[in-house]
Amino acid sequence: MNLVERIKYEFKHGGSLKTLIIINVLAFLFLKLIYIFSELFNAPVFYKWVGNTLSMPGELSGLLFQPWSMVTSLFMHADIFHLLFNMIMLYYVGNIFLTFFSQKKLVLTYILGGIAGNLLHTLSYDIFPFYMHISPMGVIGASGAVYAFFGAILYYRPTLNVQLIFGINIPFWLLALFFLIGDFTALTKPDGVAHFAHIGGALFGVISMLKVEERSQFMNRLERWFYGIQWRNIFKSKPKMKVYKNKDYRKMNDDQYRDSKKEQQDKINAILDKVSKGGYDSISKAEKEFLFKFSNEKK
């Protein structure tokens, strides 16, 4: 099995977590290809345009012109280290999440948690005076979605023990708290990291676990709705049903119309067969009227 076949296999059969990771990696490679060709053709403005179009703007007004960026930004990364760190963390906490919840909920938590985190990042420029005089920074990356898993597990199983490198076991709440405190203390640092996106993702993860055992809980409802949609057929045009009218002006669908026309043709063939054998005078008055009506309809 070559690399391409392996990727196809993992994409189809590897589960939602591996699929999300593959999409992130492919998106990164795609953007890097655009960057390389933009440089080769001395057109860096094209790469900048693609990046700006797919990343989530730092201003809410920008979302009016590119709402798709709320989703596309979750699969974009600035460099290989940004991608590598996020994918390692996604694989780690994603697998913990899957020990308690379904693959479907994993995908929804990734998307909605990432969007919630990025929205909080964007809103922070309008909420806090500290950011009023700072140019809004767009946001990319899967870290907000990763933090959504942190928040979900932190609320659902805070006493869960997890194993770190060198066989060190610690409570999950301590690991999550370590990352969250790091983000909270860095909120005013100009380090180019969207710390509010991390905090927003974690908050969504916690909210998504409230009353999660109840069928009517909002994430459970969204899961049933989202996966109940036939996505393959949603953009396909539905075949239009033609409506025909027969001599009695009854509406018929395609099948009824075809049956009616076949019955009519069989009757005509039988009458014409009688005419060929015994002449026109051999058929009845009703049959003559039927042929007359048919010839007028054909005209």
Automatic annotation (TrEMBL):
It is found in: Membrane. Residues 254-296 form the DUF6576 domain. Its main location: membrane. Residues 66-208 form the Peptidase S54 rhomboid domain. It is a multi-pass membrane protein. It comes from the Bacteria. InterPro entries: DUF6576 (IPR046483), Peptidase_S54_rhomboid_dom (IPR022764), Rhomboid-like_sf (IPR035952), Rhomboid_protease_S54 (IPR050925). This is Uncharacterized protein. It comes from Putridiphycobacter roseus. The lineage of its organism: Bacteria, Pseudomonadati, Bacteroidota, Flavobacteriia, Flavobacteriales.
